[in-house]
Write a structure and sequence with these properties.
It is elongated and about 130 Å long. Strands 2, 3, 4, 5 and 10 form a 5-stranded mixed beta sheet that branches. Strands 12-11-21-20-19 form a 5-stranded antiparallel beta sheet, with helices on both faces. The chain is of the alpha+beta class and 565 residues long. Helix content is 31%, strand content 22%. Helix 9 crosses helix 12 (369-378). The longest helix has 29 residues, at 2-30. The protein has 2 domains: 40-225, Alpha-Beta Complex (Penicillin-binding protein 2a (Domain 2)); 230-274 and 287-562, Beta-lactamase.
């Protein structure tokens, strides 16, 4: 009988002790100490600058930097060395530096880390907490570890010098973009407002997202999509690097534009820099030569003059003029006008094909000063091009008063006494490949303005003449089987301190069409110092143009089988 009572008694005692333990646990869980206060937290969430991206790649992005802070009084003195060793491994902060920081008795920032390291440190925090590295707060009873909070952001350029100097850079000290697209679209890209999170936190410092939490989301800057084809861009940059060295030029520039839309698919320079590692020698490369290098264009100006004549009904492409065997000395000039190729007679269109200064000068004299001046302005010379880059120089054209004088009118007609930039020429030439319609070049994927400059008929005439330049004239090196190519060369002597020396700027502006897609392509060598005859555009800029078109064919931007011949 005694054994029968013993079993229920043991069971009752077990139930009693279980109730007592559970009651204590429940009491401790809901009962607040006299000095207890809720563990609240306040976190700032940093708004980021918008990214700059192409269709497939991000060329500029913002990455958060996180501050890791702690109050050293909450680290168990006996386990401080363990904390220092592990924290140093995770962050690469030297142990000696951590020891110095942890001597303080207030919150200190131990490290500033990137997102990946911050995530690893959150895992480490749990490991350290399990090892009881942290001491409990007397007020809350919670163990206080380190906190990880938004601190700042850094601008990252994953492809280093690609698309520079057009891309520009972010100036952390000024908190804005500097130069290039970073500056032009600074208002769009700039972060709008930081966010706030208020609420209770857990032992690891994380916000508890319950009904008590208050969240104001950060408003980041907007992303900027570009028209740039990054693969094409990089391949052209590598080509220009080689051409700069081969032809001993100060800079080589090239651009590819969709003739219909004005979208710039590539805008490459041989002079680039890495915005994350700028050296003293890089400073000169920060200049955007496409809009800030002004130069006399030389013979690439002749088609513009011819188009103005056509639009004013002042020329018949097939009429024949005296070419004076390559040397013409009118009474109003001190020195004769000369041609590289001597011809007795030339048709008007062959003045473009064979680049005759003499014939184009005679034709230009048919224009009144007002017609010529307005024609130049209509083609965008002496004006800002509207391209989305800052600090463009609009160049110079002779005044209407100066153009009354034959010497100014004729020299302007074949590209001297006028200053232009690369983008102005690209935009002007595009009119010939777009049925007489001018479109504003755009690097970012934003709307482009358009305006009728030439009749479609006159644009077609000009396109045909520029095709003959490639087939019969100075642009023969641009012939590509199965692709319609056309354009005009220009080799202009450079004026140094008012005197024309033996250095040159060489250019080729033209087109590559396959019957479906139409592209306007420009190539310019600045201060080319290669020996004769390699400084001529026919030997430098034209072959470079051809290689760019070959790259486009390989990238399926042009299809040979659809070519218009």
């Amino acid at each position: 009988m005694k054994n029968n009572y013993r079993i229920p008694l043991i069971f009752l005692l077990f139930v009693f002790f279980f109730i007592v333990i559970f009651g204590d646990f429940l009491y401790l869980s809901i009962h607040k100490p006299p000095n207890y206060f809720p563990p609240k937290t306040y976190k700032k969430t940093l708004a980021l600058r918008g990214n700059i991206l192409t269709k497939k790649y991000t060329v500029a992005k913002s990455e958060k930097i996180y501050a890791v802070s702690i109050n050293p009084v909450f680290i168990d003195p006996e386990k401080k060395n363990l904390f220092i060793k592990l924290f140093s491994i995770y962050t690469s902060v030297p142990e000696w530096k951590l020891k110095k920081l942890l001597r303080q008795k207030r919150y200190v920032i131990l490290a500033k880390v990137d997102l990946k390291t911050a995530q690893n440190l959150k895992y480490l925090l749990k490991v350290l907490d399990k090892k009881r590295v942290f001491i409990s707060d007397k007020k809350t009873g919670l163990r206080i570890g380190y906190s990880i909070e938004d601190y700042a952001y850094k601008r990252v350029y994953p492809y280093k010098d690609t698309l520079q100097p057009v891309l520009g850079r972010f100036r952390k000290d000024l908190n804005r973009g500097e130069n290039g697209l970073e500056e032009y679209y600074d208002t769009l890209l700039a972060p709008k407002s930081n966010g706030i999170i208020k609420g209770y936190r857990d032992v690891y410092g994380n916000v508890i997202y319950d009904n008590n939490v208050y969240i104001k989301h950060a408003i980041n800057g907007k992303n900027l999509p570009l028209n740039i084809n990054l693969v094409l861009q990089r391949k052209i940059e590598k080509l220009l690097d080689l051409q700069k060295e081969k032809f001993q030029a100060d800079e080589v520039m090239a651009a590819v534009m969709d003739s219909k839309t004005g979208k710039i698919l590539a805008i490459a320079s041989s002079n680039r820099y890495n915005p994350q590692n700028i050296t003293k020698k890089d400073i000169k490369n920060m200049k955007i030569g496409f809009i800030r290098t002004l130069y006399e264009p030389g013979s690439v100006m002749k088609p513009i003059t011819f188009a103005i004549l056509l639009q004013n009904n002042k020329v018949n492409p097939y009429e024949v003029l005296n070419a004076y065997n390559g040397r013409w000395k009118p009474e109003w000039r001190r020195t004769p006008i000369k041609d590289d190729e001597p011809f007795a007679w030339l048709s008007a269109e062959n003045a473009i094909v064979h680049s005759s200064n003499i014939v184009i000068s005679q034709l230009a004299l048919r224009l009144t000063n007002k017609e010529f001046y307005q024609g130049l302005q209509n083609f965008g010379f002496g004006k800002f091009s509207g391209v989305d880059l800052p600090y463009e120089l609009r160049g110079y054209i002779p005044s209407m008063q100066k153009l009354k004088y034959p010497v100014f009118e004729t020299t302007t007609a074949y590209g001297y006494g006028i200053l232009v930039n690369f983008i102005q020429l690209l935009k002007a030439y595009n009119v010939f490949n777009n049925q007489g319609i001018e479109v504003t070049p755009k690097i970012a994927n934003v709307p482009s303005d358009e305006k009728k400059i030439l009749s479609a008929k006159n644009a077609e005439i000009m396109l045909g003449i520029l095709r003959k330049v490639v087939l019969k004239g100075t642009g023969k090196a641009a012939i590509i089987d199965g692709i319609f190519t056309a354009g005009k060369t220009g080799t202009a002597q450079r004026s140094v301190k008012g005197t024309y020396g033996k250095t040159y700027n060489s250019s080729f502006f033209g087109f590559a069409n396959d019957g479906i897609r139409r592209y306007t392509i420009g190539v310019t060598f600045i201060n080319i110092k290669a020996k004769w005859p390699h400084y001529f555009a026919s030997s430098s800029a034209v072959p470079t143009f051809k290689q760019i078109v070959d790259i486009m064919i390989n990238q399926n931007l042009l299809k040979v089988n659809n070519a218009k011949q």
